[in-house]
Amino acid sequence: ERAIARHEVREIEQRHTADGPRQEVTLDEEDDVVIIYNRVPKTASTSFTNIAYDLCAKNKYHVLHINTTKNNPVMSLQDQVRFVKNVTSWREMKPGFYHGHVSYLDFAKFGVKKKPIYINVIRDPIERLVSYYYFLRFGDDYRPGLRRRKQGDKKTFDECVAAGGSDCAPEKLWLQIPFFCGHSSECWNVGSRWALEQAKYNLINEYFLVGVTEELEDFIMLLEAALPRFFRGATELYRTG
């Protein structure tokens, strides 16, 4: 896999060379910034991301969606290499705010010196699971016409628990851990002590800020104070809708 990944990198470099000389985009330090919000599903991530979209023109940065095949939060090694190289070398799209349902990816292991800024939001595990359970049945206001996987199923969450259903199984409470743990297969092993410790380590050492859904306004206020280049005006926008 690593040999294939190196081949992918060479192919990207060759394509850039074949495209001919490109005018180099020079960036000052304030603009040479990438934020990655590897959003956990059903943690108010859409509401927060909409703020980034609403502010990007005013604050002059780019918002890009990380769209993976079948919404798989884990990328192959080849895709990891391509993603890291594209994000770090795509100077025309800096400063950039990337968002998507993907697990944490350590840029340093690919030799990147200036790593992106990671942020995220987590939610009470049971509240998140209940929200996701009903989302699969009724969707949301953003794409009301989209047919969801469990559409038509009228069973309540409590009824699902009583019947021992798979959609409300205790194992589903684990989902937030892998988003902080990373791309290792062990991260998705429900109940893994190593995965939990790795997730906690990354949250503390690799994330700039992690908020909680129940205190989202505080999270946004801190971001505006700490990263005004991106989030100037975010608190007022959140309060006024």
TrEMBL record:
Topology within the bilayer: Single-pass type II membrane protein
Any one GO CC term of the record: Golgi membrane
Alphabetized UniProt keyword annotations: Coiled coil, Disulfide bond, Glycoprotein, Golgi apparatus, Membrane, Signal-anchor, Transferase, Transmembrane, Transmembrane helix
A Pfam cross-reference name: Sulfotransfer_2
SUPFAM superfamilies for the chain: P-loop containing nucleoside triphosphate hydrolases
Keyword Electron transport belongs to the record: no
Superkingdom in the source lineage: Eukaryota
Region listing for Disordered, in residue ranges: 1-21
Location of the protein in the cell: Golgi apparatus membrane
GO molecular function: heparan sulfate 2-sulfotransferase activity
Keyword Kinase in annotation: no
PANTHER family: HEPARAN SULFATE 2-O-SULFOTRANSFERASE, HEPARAN SULFATE 2-O-SULFOTRANSFERASE 1
Protein family per UniProt: Belongs to the sulfotransferase 3 family.
The name this protein goes by in its record: Heparan sulfate 2-O-sulfotransferase 1
Species, as recorded: Chloropsis cyanopogon
Lineage, broadest ranks: Eukaryota, Metazoa, Chordata, Craniata, Vertebrata
Gene: Hs2st1
